[in-house]
Amino acid sequence: MPIENAAFSLPEYKARIAKTRAAMEKAGIDLLFVTDPSNQAWLTGYDGWSFYVHQGVLLPMEGEPIWWGRGMDAQGGKRTCWMSFDNIHGYADNYVQSTVRHPMQDLAGHIRRLGSEGARIGVEMENYYYSAKAHAVLTEELPNATFVDATALVNWQRLVKSGEEIAFIRKAARISEKVIRTAIDKSAVGVRKNDVVAEIMHAGITGVDDIWGDYPAIVPLTPSGLDATAAHLTWNGAPMKEGEATFFELSGCYRRYHAPLCRTVFLGKPPQSALDAEKAQVEGIEAALDAARAGNRTCDIANAFTSVLAKHGLKKEGRMGYPIGLSYPPDWGERSASIRAEDQTILEPGMTFHFMPALWMDTWGLETTETILITENGPAEAVCNVERKLFVKD
Amino acid sequence: MPIENAAFSLPEYKARIAKTRAAMEKAGIDLLFVTDPSNQAWLTGYDGWSFYVHQGVLLPMEGEPIWWGRGMDAQGGKRTCWMSFDNIHGYADNYVQSTVRHPMQDLAGHIRRLGSEGARIGVEMENYYYSAKAHAVLTEELPNATFVDATALVNWQRLVKSGEEIAFIRKAARISEKVIRTAIDKSAVGVRKNDVVAEIMHAGITGVDDIWGDYPAIVPLTPSGLDATAAHLTWNGAPMKEGEATFFELSGCYRRYHAPLCRTVFLGKPPQSALDAEKAQVEGIEAALDAARAGNRTCDIANAFTSVLAKHGLKKEGRMGYPIGLSYPPDWGERSASIRAEDQTILEPGMTFHFMPALWMDTWGLETTETILITENGPAEAVCNVERKLFVKD
Lengths: 394, 394
Fold this sequence. Notes:
Two copies of one chain form a homodimer.
Chain A lengths: L9 H18 L3 E4 L2 H8 L11 E5 L5 E5 H10 L7 E4 L11 H11 L6 E4 L8 H10 L4 E4 L3 H5 L5 H24 L6 H14 L37 E11 L2 E11 L4 H20 L6 H14 L9 E3 L28 E4 L3 E2 L4 E2 L3 E4 L7 E2 L7 E4 L1
Parallel strand pairs in A: 1-5, 3-4, 5-6, 8-15
Antiparallel strand pairs in A: 1-2, 2-3, 7-8, 9-10, 10-13, 11-12, 13-14
Helix pairs in contact in A: 4-5, 7-8, 9-10
């Protein structure tokens, strides 16, 4: 594929590879096998819904990365990766979901051809797309190799975003604003939840002007009432009801980059407890954004929020956010740092997080969140612009 | 959750468990740990977009299954599983995507509490949601257990659908017809692909009458022209062009059940080679459906198709289909049998497959597929009703 068609410039891809190789060297890894689709895309540009079969990127210490996957998806590799076609390899279709063959047997052949059968090979042990079986077959095929757990090695390199990436996230943010406003507009007593979701999806995929919408890595999460006390239930065909809060956890997506955003809608007159929680939450978010400064730590963001909440007699436990950017299903989080009391990652300009200090109560949930960008000086910037409050439709 | 709210009747769930236990017994498994979200839902009803963190179902040889996952998702378990709340367990949030703790440490505690630390434990070695790391931690935690590869053990029990399941698939099929017709209607020279996809998604989620649309396990696959030679590329914002074929691989979804369907649209005047291929493909599908009879084998379907193709001087290699029904991302296939020359699974009434004899050529792709139901007598039934042809919009 001509580099002009790639999502990013060649110097950008080269810089990513240089960063990754430095991390490999530090970890004592000669050859890295990357299965996380986000990491594959970040290094090579590969983009397709083909991660349900085994595929990955081999990154040696020199030369171009090598994309490897199912034969028919190697065609997709040629249409989306920036490397020369020599570095895109497909395996035969009878390896696919076979009970007698495993694609890792084919991959092992490529590793032997690279002369790396005795190398220190980094694998992403904790990844959706590197199964227990894949590891068992690969290690059996390469008895002289030493396997090193390289979980999140590439993800950590992605933590500070480049200017090109931030531009994509800002585009995604325009779509996020649109989908959240659509959700608020369409919510009404008696409207079926799936019809609201259909409008949200339509708004997200049409996008904003020339910012066309890609698919977010998570479907709209839109639970109401008691279902909203469970964070990850999806919709059904039941009508929205008077007296219920519904939270909308949504993200726009532009060329696989996300900017998640949540707002909560209350139909009818909210109880005083919800209004009190709203006040505490909004004040807490302001304090947290002020603490989200370069040089501070991720835990400082969490602690700033919980301090305000405590002042209001409320308590929030659990994780309050994660880095975001490039992602594929099933998660739009980057799975490296976390915004939580025990995480001490130092904040740097260019980091982007979904800060989500959701309050899940016994009988309702209140989600007001922001995608934030750590800046050179001063507090974090919220990249989306939607009023920060509980939306009441009475 | 009251059983009336469950997707299926209690006798249906009990029958599924009985079938699974018989398979466990045959495989010498005392305790099964199920991570495939589709298998979890099939056994317990659990339904939520929470599979991006570790969760699963423990099925002992007696008593109810046990759903286990993140604390906040245990709330979702209580709202979607049919078992008593005693059998729904959550782990603490500091296990989530932690660099120092792993949820499998918590799961091992539950297995010890069941007295099964020395049991023969079945695990789904080849599953997106059972990572190499999860297996490493679990086996380390339970050194006296014997681990047995139970990949697809539950999936095979799902191959023959119950009447209740077939009713769901028929509902999904109504939505599939609607989304395919929407795609054909909206396709036109100059229309941005993402705008077509937005209409498809809107049509799919609004559904048909009271058949509300759930999210399909794969996003719309809609490549045009040269991109259509690569099977799994997703859309972008480029306008559709004169002289290009676009295939639409779509599925309606009703309460997680699918009925995938593909049709191809040609804008302008198609080349004779495409028309010839269309003729061969349609004739081949008819022959294949006729061969898809109870008592025949999956390979008979594939061979019937390729024989017709050969008569027309065309060749088709690779897998031509897979069982479908209940599914979660990233795949709507069931990952047990395959429709291909080397697969000898005996067809039984109630089996449902996505039969997809797609022709991917050097410069274009032609996908015309059907979701088929194996009947008591006679050829397979195509559960969707959309004309089987290349749709030409000139």
